[in-house]
């Protein structure tokens, strides 16, 4: 028994230590710093209780970023899942579906920053491929200044949708692949339409995968950062219309252009984001909790 | 006592002794490094804003080698941390291990608690008769001074203004404009050839802001920008000076004088287009000619002209900024650091910056880079210097620009004339007031 306890400790200990040092300690440190007026360069900071949090709740800049995040979360999310379901349905019956999936997944394995830079080139108002293409096909009237104030947010959301769709399609396809073909055959024999097959067979039998995908999307959307930053181009702070809480956190903590340093406040934003992710994930998991379908 | 427990205790003692020894050794080593007699053994920790492959790094490395040879008791450990060097050393400072020299733009260095460098200014440059202070022009000293004390030592400086290619003006029989109306009138000549008067990368908020900064300074003098930004009611923004400046920006952006779609052009697309001879001018600092070295045609001759005058109290002001060295208050080797800095002001090193990095140095006896000959000629006339962005960066909190100027002015500038001047100034006043209300 004694030996067993030591053995357990031997195997579990390193993992626990690893988690405590590299995950637990930074979280605790972030929580602590969020309760101080830490500026980053001052060697001494003082405890200010919840002052950073009360300031945050009244901060108009943070509130604006919150709305931006919600738009990405819900509008972007709705589009990503709608397109992914559509592709999933098409790919299920397609020849060369593995190849098609690989092509769709490709953007996800490229560094988002590189993709965002590419988008900047594609959307250049004068020399960009998109406007040039619109001209070529005689649709010059549809040309826009895609990265200008009127379109920048839409362009960012479309970019994020394009970037994410391949990943979520692949994920959902993996769920669909598990469904035995005879379920669809039976549904067809009973005269079920494609829509009914989707609603009555595909959705219920991939419910757990959809739940996981939703959790991943929520975490990604709340923490959206690098893609938008790179989208703005070199040496530029993103347009305020595209500031997410994560971007605001960065600007408050390390503003690379103007040298604004508010570590305490930045940590308070980080804690709020962490709580938001935790609550959202808990809610999604609860919403998607169903008895597992055995097949 | 069981054998295993004895063994454990012994091992623990051994470990404790080893740890104590290591800690003592470490602290003794630290003491050795901490010796700060400029003539004794010291290692100066220098964190540079350049990357190892940057030409400035080559010049600094060469200077370090010469310095260490002349001062055998002092070593210089240079870390080329890149442009975000200030953010990268924060943990070093928190761990009470501050570097001895930090390098960067003056606006970014103001965040640190700094050692006054007046004594450095009084130090003789090794092997020369002049002091450091004597080779730095007064205008550049002012940019590095706060509350009567020198906090930074400038070694490169940049100057703002209009850049053009000689061929672009000569082929149209145009002269560099001295007055604003002359400048805007040239738009028609470029437009006739399907080219813009100005190439502008709208993605860089700072570049867009340069227009307003210079016009406000021309109409209201060097302090006008800072005066409005620090007014906590925001009402100053609605004054005549700002209206006139905003009117000119609006007229410029709505007249098709800028590249089409400038509001959504991502850097460096417009800058490269300018370098390739498409368009007349680019409003930027003197780092720009070097940035476009690889893009422009070999025979393109780059020229500079100051921002045009408007007949106001700030006419002829030159917007400038410096790259400087600072010594943090928490540095452990201040004397050695200053000795090294005095060495860096030697003519050979400064000529190296000019030749290799093609930048302007404070020393007037250094041959400037040919690319910046016009700027050098202007500075020889000792013009009045205005800190970059009309001193906004030193007078308002750092995030004032990010939260107030960039979004509100950005919308105005990128509206292509759709937004009116009164609407813009109302929004600017409101955003400014809101900003100050959020300041603790």
TrEMBL record, chain A:
PROSITE patterns attached to this UniProt entry: ABC_TM1 (PS50928)
Localization in the cell: Cell membrane
SUPFAM superfamilies linked: MetI-like (SSF161098)
Gene Ontology biological process terms from the UniProt entry: transmembrane transport
Pfam families with a match to the protein in the record: BPD_transp_1
Membrane spanning residue stretches: 66-91, 103-122, 151-174, 209-231, 263-284
GO cellular component terms, semicolon-separated: plasma membrane
Membrane topology: Multi-pass membrane protein
Domain ABC transmembrane type-1: start-end pairs: 62-284
tRNA processing as UniProt keyword: no
Entry protein name: ABC transmembrane type-1 domain-containing protein
Key words, A-Z: Cell membrane, Membrane, Transmembrane, Transmembrane helix, Transport
Annotated source species: Streptomyces finlayi
Family stated for the protein in its record: Belongs to the binding-protein-dependent transport system permease family.
Main location: membrane
Automatic annotation (TrEMBL), chain B:
PANTHER family for the chain: ARABINOSE-BINDING PROTEIN-RELATED (PTHR43649), BLR3389 PROTEIN (PTHR43649:SF14)
Gene3D superfamilies the record matches: Periplasmic binding protein-like II
Membrane-spanning intervals of the chain: none
Highest taxon of the lineage: Bacteria
InterPro entries from the UniProt entry: Bact_solute-bd_prot1, SBP
Entry protein name: Sugar-binding protein
Origin species: Streptomyces finlayi
Keyword terms: Signal
Signal peptide residue numbers: 1-32
Pfam families (alphabetical): SBP_bac_1
């Amino acid at each position: 028994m004694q030996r067993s306890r030591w053995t357990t400790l031997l195997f579990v200990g390193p993992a626990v230590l690893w988690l405590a040092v590299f995950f637990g300690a930074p979280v605790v440190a972030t929580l602590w710093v969020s309760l101080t007026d830490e500026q980053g360069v001052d060697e001494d900071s003082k405890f200010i209780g919840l002052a950073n949090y009360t300031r945050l709740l009244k901060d108009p800049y943070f509130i604006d970023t919150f709305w931006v995040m919600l738009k990405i979360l819900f509008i972007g999310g709705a589009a990503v899942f709608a397109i992914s379901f559509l592709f999933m349905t098409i790919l299920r019956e397609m020849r060369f579906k593995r190849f098609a999936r690989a092509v769709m997944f490709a953007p996800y394995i490229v560094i988002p920053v590189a993709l965002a830079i590419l988008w900047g080139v594609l959307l250049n108002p004068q020399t960009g491929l998109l406007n040039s293409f619109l001209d070529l096909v005689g649709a010059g009237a549809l040309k826009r200044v895609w990265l200008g104030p009127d379109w920048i947010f839409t362009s960012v959301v479309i970019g994020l949708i394009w970037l994410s769709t391949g990943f979520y399609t692949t994920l959902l396809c993996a769920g669909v692949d598990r469904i035995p073909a005879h379920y669809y055959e039976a549904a067809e024999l009973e005269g079920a339409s494609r829509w009914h097959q989707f609603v009555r067979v595909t959705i219920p039998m991939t419910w757990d995968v959809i739940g996981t995908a939703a959790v991943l999307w929520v975490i990604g959307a709340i923490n959206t950062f690098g893609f938008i930053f790179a989208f703005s181009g070199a040496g530029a702070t993103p347009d305020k219309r595209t500031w997410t809480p994560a971007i605001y956190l960065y600007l408050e903590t390390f503003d690379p252009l103007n040298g604004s340093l508010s570590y305490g406040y930045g940590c308070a934003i980080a804690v709020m984001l962490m709580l938001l992710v935790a609550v959202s994930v808990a809610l999604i998991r609860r919403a998607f909790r169903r008895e597992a379908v055995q097949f | 006592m069981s054998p295993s427990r004895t063994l454990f205790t012994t091992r623990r003692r051994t470990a404790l002794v080893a740890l104590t020894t290591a800690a003592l050794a470490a602290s003794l080593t630290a003491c050795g490094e901490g010796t700060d007699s400029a003539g004794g053994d010291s290692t100066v920790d220098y964190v540079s804003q350049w990357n190892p492959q940057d030409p400035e790094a080559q010049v600094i490395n060469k200077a370090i080698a010469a310095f260490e040879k002349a001062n055998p008791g002092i070593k210089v450990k240079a870390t080329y941390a890149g442009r975000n060097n200030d953010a990268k050393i924060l943990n070093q400072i928190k761990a009470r291990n501050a570097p001895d020299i930090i390098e960067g733009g003056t606006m970014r260095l103001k965040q640190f608690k700094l050692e006054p460098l007046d004594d450095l200014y009084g130090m003789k440059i090794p092997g020369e008769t002049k002091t450091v202070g004597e080779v730095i022009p007064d205008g550049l000293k002012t940019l590095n001074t706060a509350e009567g004390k020198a906090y930074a030592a400038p070694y490169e400086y940049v100057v703002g203004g209009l850049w053009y290619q000689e061929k672009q003006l000569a082929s149209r029989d145009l002269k560099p404009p001295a007055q604003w109306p002359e400048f805007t009138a040239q738009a028609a000549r470029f437009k006739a050839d399907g080219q813009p008067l100005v190439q502008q990368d709208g993605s860089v908020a700072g570049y867009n802001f340069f227009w307003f900064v210079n016009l406000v300074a021309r109409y209201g003098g060097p302090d006008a920008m800072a005066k409005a930004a620090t007014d906590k009611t925001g009402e100053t923004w609605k004054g005549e000076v700002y209206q006139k400046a905003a009117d000119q920006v609006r007229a410029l952006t709505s007249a098709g004088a800028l590249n089409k779609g400038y509001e959504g052009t991502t850097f460096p697309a417009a800058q490269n287009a300018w370098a390739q001879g498409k368009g007349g001018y680019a409003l930027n600092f003197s780092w720009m000619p070097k940035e476009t070295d690889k893009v422009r045609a070999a025979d393109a001759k780059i020229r500079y002209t100051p921002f045009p005058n408007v007949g106001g109290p700030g006419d002829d002001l030159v917007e400038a900024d410096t790259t400087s060295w600072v010594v943090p208050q928490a540095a452990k080797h201040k004397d050695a650091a200053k000795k090294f800095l005095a060495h860096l002001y030697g003519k050979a090193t400064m000529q190296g910056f000019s030749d290799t990095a093609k930048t302007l140095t404070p020393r007037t006896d250094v041959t400037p880079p040919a690319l910046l000959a016009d700027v050098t000629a202007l500075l020889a006339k000792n013009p009045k210097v205005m800190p970059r962005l009309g001193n906004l960066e030193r007078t308002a909190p750092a995030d004032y620009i990010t939260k107030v100027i960039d979004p509100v002015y950005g919308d105005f500038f990128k509206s292509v004339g759709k937004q009116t001047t009164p609407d813009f100034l109302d929004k600017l006043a409101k955003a400014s007031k809101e900003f100050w209300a959020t300041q603790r």
